[in-house]
Amino acid sequence: LPATFPELLDDAPTDLPRDRDGDRYEEERLSGEVIVDAPFEDGETTVGTLLTDRAETDRQAARDRLASLFDELDTPEALAVAAAKTTLEVPDSVPERQSVVADLRVLSLLSAETGLRIAGPDFDPYYEHSGGYGYTWFRDDAEISTFLLESDHRLGLGLDDWHERSARMYVETQRADGAWPHRVWPRNGGLAPGWANARIEDGPDVDYQADQTGSVIAYLARARGAGIDVPGLETTLADALDSLDSTLADDGRPVVCQNAWEDSAGRFTHTTATFLEAYAALARHGAGVEASPAGSDAMDGETLDGDASNGGATERRADL
What we know:
Blueprint: H1 5-9, H2 59-72, H3 76-84, H4 97-109, E1 136-137, H5 138-155, H6 160-173, E2 183-184, H7 210-225, H8 233-246, E3 257-258, E4 265-266, H9 269-285
């Protein structure tokens, strides 16, 4: 096992490999690290890793895949050619082209094949400080998707397949109530552990981050306006509109819920702003998308109470 943080800061060196039965408890036996013995041949060795799902790929199939990769990529030149194929094609005319390429490469490294992105690498093997960021938060993912959509429109980056993947996964991960959960596993969109899933738990709905649903709606509406079409998009937007309406209080602003920092429950300017953005995007790009007649009592086609000083919306949705 790797050195712990106290050991890293200790003036005395840490002897590795350590004795696995050295009177240590389970919290130091569990980590994100794997230690192997790699024999050298003629002063060289090659180490490769392959992440698989045991439900989809058995051990022998994974080993066969690794053996095939080692046969194909057995020289530095072959590895360089393979790495070059992962570089994104960006037109030479794009301003600050190398920066754009670097940004897109970072996003691609954070993305699963589904298109969903992890919040960040888990740099802390003991999860003592990072909290675990190998999940997809819909707030982060949808905002990134929106920025990519707008950048693609301005710069011509050719990212239609990225936009479609994101839209498809948002459609697939929407809950039955029209909202999106706290966070999911990026590789398949499955529900991940979280502390803001009140709408799918018993009890009050306070521990729900309504701004996440607002961010997803804003992206899906803009993607629709940009010509991105995936199965179920219209129904998803209609159900999402119902969900958004159901989380409006009588004064036209979002009900009490968790904030974006996940440390408080209340009524927040940021949440209100995401609602405004979602309604505005639907008004612009959601022609034909309508909430169901059985939608929230908070939605009646009238104006939203509130003014610019408190971030309230100025108009309630009528007919989009």
